[in-house]
Amino acid sequence: MHLEQRIxxxxxxxxxxxxxxxxxxxxHDNIEYNNLFFDGFKHQIKLAQEHNGWFTTQNLRFAxxxxxxxxxxxxxxxxxxxxxIETFTPKKVAIIMAxxxxxxxxxxxxSVLITGHNVLVKQSSNDxxxxxxxxxxxxxxxxxxxxxxxxxxxxxxxxxxxxxxxxNNTARYFEYYFKNKPxxxxxxxxxxxxxxxxxxxxxxxxxxxxxxxxxxxxxxxxSKLFVPNNYNFxxxxxxxxHWHPIINEAKYANNYDYNKAVYLMSEFDMLENGFxxxxxxxxxxxxxxxxxxxxxxxxxxxxxxxxxxxxxxQCIVAKGFSENEVAFGATQNPELWDYADSVxxxxxxxxx
Length: 352
Description:
- The chain has 12 helices and 11 strands.
- By secondary structure, the chain is of the alpha/beta class.
- It has a 6-stranded mixed beta sheet.
- The longest helix has 18 residues, at 34-51.
C-alpha cells in the first residue's frame, strides 16, 4: 500500500466523521459505505456516552470536528512533507491509550498507520467504543489495512515498539516493562496560561475554552494561571461567565461540591463564582472545577521557572511570552504536527 493510498483513506475517514461534528447530525449521500456504517456509529456514540459520563454530546462533537478538520489532504500532506516515508518492512507498534477525552489516542493510531507500520492497540476502558468502529470503516475504505490493525484487552505480546500514555505512576511501570523496546512513554502533563493584566475581554473569553473544554481533563487543558502580583480577577471571572451552565452537568457539579467542601473544611483561601474555584497553589494539576494560580513579580524569573519545569507542562497559553506559546483559546485545536510532549512520533516511527 502506497503512502497516497493511506492518506486518501484517512481523508475519507475525516469526511465520515464530519457528519457527526455539527449540532444536527446529517447523513450525506456522497460518503462511501455510509449505509453500512452511519447508523452503527451513532450507536457507538450512544454507547460511549452511556459508558463514560464525561463524554457528553458537545465534547464528542468537538472531538469529531477537530479530527474531521485535521484529516484533509492539505493538512496531512503539510504534516508529512518534512519526512522521507519510504517503503520498508513494517513493524508492529503497540499503543497503550489513555481515556481521558474522546479519541485521545487517535493521533498515535494515525501516525503508526500513515508511516506504513502495523498497529496493536490497547485501549483505556473509559474510551473503548469509538476507535475500533472507525478502524473497521478504514478497512472498508482501504482493504489493504486489513491485517494491519489489531485491538487487545490482554497483555501486549509480539510487538517491536511501543507508544504508551499514562499517569506518572504507570509511566514508571512502562519505562521498566518496555526498557528493551524502542518506546515513547508519556506521563501527566498540564497546560498553563501566563496573564499580564493587559488581556482583552476576547482573550479571556477564549481562555475559558482552554479551561473548560473536556471539563479540564485533557493534558492540553489549562489547569493553572500565572498572574502578576496584585492581579485583579474581576475581569477574568466576568469573561468566563458564559460557561456557567456547566454546573448543571451532574458529574461536574459533584466534583465542584466535593472539592469546595474539602477546601472549606481545610480553611484554604479560594475565590469562586458558583461553577469554578481558583486557589493559590504551586502545583500544576488542579482538580476538576478548580483552577490553580501563582503570582509572579518578574517575567524573566517566571521564564526561568517555566523552563526548569517544562517536563510538567504541555502547552503555554500566552501573548508574547515565548516562541512556543499557544494563542488564547487554541489549546484544544492542535495541528497534526503539534506533538504531545514535543516528541516527534513520526520521526520515532521512521527510526525503528
